[in-house]
Every structure is written in structure tokens, then in C-alpha cells.
Amino acid sequence: MPAPDDLADPVDPEALTRLDGVGRPGLVAQLITLFLETAPDTMEALHTAHARRDLDGVARAAHRLRSSASNFGAARLVDLTRQIERRAETDGATQFDTLIADAGAEFARVRQRLEEIKAARS
Prior knowledge:
mainly alpha
């Protein structure tokens, strides 16, 4: 997968607009807060499962992170975690070093952007 365009927003503004349109005041802020509170632990669980060669744990953590990231249209993070999850479930591959490193870097970009969005909405 190509490297991210550093100028591209790792979060899709249209995804946030759609969430705003659900009609629940504060929903976006709640989802951002939940992501910021739980996703770092999920990322850590992914690293831990990988280190233990626990393919089920890798797949579960990747799935959780993918599901959370999809709320915000974080397409690159969603794609990377989908690849990790599929490889863990179907290939039995245990070498995820590059994918997990890329997911970690993209996670950091998404987290930073969501922190900025949360601050701007406060």
C-alpha cells in the first residue's frame, strides 16, 4: 500500500458530517472520546498478540480497531487493519511487522486529527 499523503486528512470530513446528521447531539464528540480512550489499548493488544503469535488475538484487535476507525472514515487505517485481520484469519501468517508498523503510524495520524477535531468542537 502506498505511503499516506501527508497533506491528506486521515479522517473523512464527510463521515463526520454524516454522523452529525444522525440527529443525536454530541454523538461525534462521544465517538471521538470513546476512540481516544479505547483505541490505544486496542493498538497495544494488537502488538501484544503479534508478539505472542496469537493469530486470533491479532484478528480480534485488528477488527476492533477497524470498526472504530470506520466511524470516522479513516480509510487507510481501515484498509491496513482489514489486511491484518484477513491475513490472521486466512493465511495463518505470523509476519505482520510492516503492516502493523504502518497501522501504528496511521493510527497516530488519525488520533492526532481526532484530537484536533475534538478541541475545535469544544
